[in-house]
Amino acid sequence: MKSPKVGFVSLGCPKALVDSERILTQLKVEGYEVAADYAGADLVVVNTCGFIESAVQESLDAIGEAISENGKVIVTGCLGKNEAQIRAMHPSVLKVTGPHAYDDVMIAVHEYVPPPPAHNPYIDLVPPQGVRLTPKHYAYLKISEGCNHRCTFCIIPSLRGDLVSRPIGSVMDEAQALVNAGVKEILVISQDTSAYGVDLKYKLDFWQGQPLKSKFYDLCVALGQLGVWVRLHYVYPYPHVDAAIDLMAEGKILPYLDIPFQHASPRVLALMKRPAHSENTLERIKAWRSKCPELSIRSTFVVGFPGETEEDFQYLLDWLQEAQLDRVGCFTYSAIDGAVANDLPDPVPEEIKQQRYERFMQVQQEISTARLQRKIGQVMTVLVDELDEEHPVAVARSYADAPEIDGNVFVEDIDRSQIKAGQRLTVEITDADEYDLFARLISIDA
Ligand code: SF4
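YS: structure for the whole thing
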């Protein structure tokens, strides 16, 4: 008997990608095949994103495409919270479920396309690390769902609920399975990585006989024992993060922090209700850098938040000059359906938002460029993501570059037959532009 086939469309952030991987793994376990196109699928699952207006539109378009190409569509993910909005536009969707509702998705799949009766999950092979949508050499490790904060511009807590951390034993089992499967870089993700375990009251758990607390620092220590790159995303500058910087300085985890600061002016941060907004972040960054000079910090910012004055904005620019962050993204504020910030007074006119965005980017670009220039002449390890299709160039990343969001290290004049994706190389940096580094190969490591 032929296995039933399910098509899958995955949209949104790395957290949504991990949800997709879990559903795909369960489909495989139950004997479903994943269809390569709409025509070959018995049913299509669309994992949506509902964070900002453009993501909502992209999700609605993807649902429409799946309906016209296939007809049988189940919707899941963040936009699933707004079932009425989906049904208003696409009344024929079979079922709508919310974010990380793996069981509900599987129940809906069973209803419309039953699993093959003869399938035996104990005999048929599903890799222990599950199905992954990232390249073989790196993987996202989701340590918790939801968030306890209530930032006024964000609707994630209403979409995904309060913080629910996974016990550390289960997180470490998954990390070990990934390493066993050949992963060389683990990217730790959540909505608030520094809050890991708060909801569990840092419950003691066991992993391979080791007692470990479900706590940010213990997790960093345990992951640091796996012998792969460990990169931390979505960390807030709380005092307890300082201890992780020691692990970075000792080379246990990558000296890299992704901290979504969003603003610097205390007044705007308070309006945003940002976590750790009363911390003296400049002092903290200085202290971190004195302990671990190679620390690379990436962040994102929002300009034109309601109530942001020219003085607040200038404060942000001055802060940027002081902070000297390595990688920075910036957005102009846009209202999100259901966000508290929509009701704040003094919205910033679009034209001013745009001007502030351009001024911000100019300042940051100069900083990033200068910081990259300082790397010329350094010898470092990079991880190859892919080979350029036309030129003898390996597209790689250093410890300072997360996939998709940061820059690359282009290793030039390589012998293509010697190098493949997932290899570590030692290189010397020979040049830099605003975003990327260029390098020459010194040796192939592993
Ligand atoms: S920390 Fe703030 S922005 Fe991030 S998920 Fe929680 S509420 Fe949203």
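YS: worth flagging: Residues 5-112 form a domain with the Rossmann fold fold (CATH 3.40.50.12160).
IM: good catch. Also The two ends are 43 Å apart (CA to CA).
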